[in-house]
């Protein structure tokens, strides 16, 4: 019997010697695939080698992709075209670019605003729409969070505060959370105009005052919860007016009693509602993805209102809890065997 082959596709420049199979983030996953009889190899991607990589990647049955939406100031447009071609030729690709566009962009917060994991979310579809409506949103709430259409690692996520007395705006970028900038309304709008390039949108989310409770990341493989990560201090966290750099994320298995209620509602209600809202079949859900939640009331026994969605990540989820590995191996096996 011929072994099924799997490529772990990661970013690497033209001279990269990167080998994901031996990297700390992926070596246990690679070992688990090998133990189940799969052939597993690392492939490095960069735009310059895209055409050459097409023939290489056609040799694999499955291509598991860990490339951020923005790598070395480059987007994924060329990579995503390649992955779609490979999928059309019968290769299993995860996460598929079509699924990333449905659930891996920040407008997921607006698309799923009717699911009871949501808070107050607005979407601006053009710069004119933004300049026409955002001032009222900010002046009413005093603090909002703006998120660009695609980004990672806090890139393009901003805490916006309204200084009523001075009639100006305080801006903190999650990627540089120790830096606060004060802008006039005109300068503020000018700074955000590029976010609407190429038809992109901007998401306006309510500020969650319960950030002090930390954030729980729910990891999933397909429809199954595969583990959790808890981070007490995350980007934009403040303590008595002092900004603190993000802290370590601690990992837990899918059976962790601390988050048993979140697992239950994700598997029994929210994932199904998400799929229905976005028209995503079971066989298109990512092999590994996560949903980040604010914890509104840690001590509550009432699941409704306890958690509020912050964002969903699907394009480059790593690291992941060790407990997720068995789920990922099983999910890939079911898709290509």
Description:
This protein has helices at residues 27-35, 50-57, 77-88, 97-103, 108-111, 127-141, 185-192, 260-278, 324-336, and strands spanning 5-11, 39-45, 62-66, 92-94, 121-124, 143-148, 157-163, 168-173, 180-183, 202-206, 215-221, 224-231, 238-239, 242-243, 249-252, 289-295, 307-313. With 337 residues, it is α+β, with helices and mostly antiparallel strands. It has three domains: 5-93, Rossmann fold, CATH 3.40.50; 102-118 and 209-336, ATP-grasp fold, B domain (D-amino Acid Aminotransferase, Chain A, domain 1, 2-Layer Sandwich), CATH 3.30.470; 121-206, Cathepsin B, Chain A (Alpha-Beta Complex), CATH 3.90.70. It has a six-stranded antiparallel beta sheet. Strands 15-12-11-16-17 form a five-stranded antiparallel beta sheet. Strand 13 (238-239) and strand 14 (242-243) form a beta hairpin. The mean pLDDT is 93.
Essential attributes:
337 residues, alpha+beta, Cathepsin B, Chain A, six-stranded antiparallel beta sheet, five-stranded antiparallel beta sheet, 9 helices, 27% strand, globular
CATH C-level label of the largest domain? Alpha Beta
N-to-C CA distance: 12 Å
Give the amount of beta strand, in percent.
Answer: 25-35%
Strand order of the largest sheet: 5-10-6-7-8-9
CATH architecture of the largest domain: 2-Layer Sandwich
Class by SSE composition: alpha+beta
Largest sheet at a glance? 6 strands, antiparallel
- Low-pLDDT stretches are none
Give me the CATH fold name of the largest domain. Answer: D-amino Acid Aminotransferase, Chain A, domain 1
Instruction: Name the average pLDDT.
Output: 93
Number of helices: 9
Q: Into which percent range does the helicity of residues fall?
A: 25-40%
Task: Give the C-alpha Rg.
Answer: 21 Å
User: What overall geometry do the principal axes of the alpha carbons give?
Assistant: globular
Order of helices and strands: EHEHEHEHHEHEEEEHEEEEEEHEEH
The CATH superfamily name of the largest domain is ATP-grasp fold, B domain
DSSP, total strands: 17
């Amino acid at each position: 019997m011929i072994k099924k082959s799997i490529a772990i596709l990661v970013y690497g420049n033209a001279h990269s010697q990167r080998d994901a199979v031996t990297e700390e983030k992926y070596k246990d996953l690679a070992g688990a695939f090998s133990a189940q009889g799969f052939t597993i190899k690392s492939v490095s991607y960069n735009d310059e080698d895209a055409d050459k990589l097409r023939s290489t990647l056609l040799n694999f049955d499955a291509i598991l992709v860990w490339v951020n939406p923005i790598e070395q100031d480059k987007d994924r447009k060329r990579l995503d075209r390649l992955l779609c071609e490979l999928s059309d030729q019968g290769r299993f690709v995860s996460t598929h670019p079509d699924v990333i566009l449905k659930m891996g962009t920040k407008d997921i917060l607006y698309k799923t605003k009717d699911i009871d994991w949501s808070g107050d979310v607005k979407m601006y579809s053009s710069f004119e729409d933004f300049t026409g409506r955002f001032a009222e949103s900010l002046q009413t709430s005093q603090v909002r969070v703006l998120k660009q259409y695609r980004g990672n690692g806090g890139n393009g996520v901003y805490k916006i505060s309204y200084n009523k007395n001075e009639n100006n705006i305080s801006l903190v970028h999650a990627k540089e959370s120790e830096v606060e900038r004060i802008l006039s309304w005109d300068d503020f709008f000018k700074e955000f105009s590029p976010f609407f390039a190429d038809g992109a949108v901007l998401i306006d989310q309510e500020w969650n005052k319960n950030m002090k409770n930390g954030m729980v990341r729910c990891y999933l493989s397909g429809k199954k919860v595969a583990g959790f990560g808890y981070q007490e201090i995350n980007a934009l966290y403040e303590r008595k007016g002092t900004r603190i750099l993000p802290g370590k994320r601690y990992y837990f298995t899918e059976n962790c009693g601390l988050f048993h209620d979140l697992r239950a509602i994700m598997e029994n209600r929210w994932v199904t509602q998400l799929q229905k809202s976005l028209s995503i079949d079971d066989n298109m859900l990512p092999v590994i993805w996560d949903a980040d939640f604010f914890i509104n009331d840690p001590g509550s026994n009432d699941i409704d209102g306890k958690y509020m969605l912050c964002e969903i990540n699907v394009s480059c989820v790593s690291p992941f809890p060790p407990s997720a590995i068995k789920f990922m191996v099983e999910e890939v096996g079911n898709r290509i065997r």
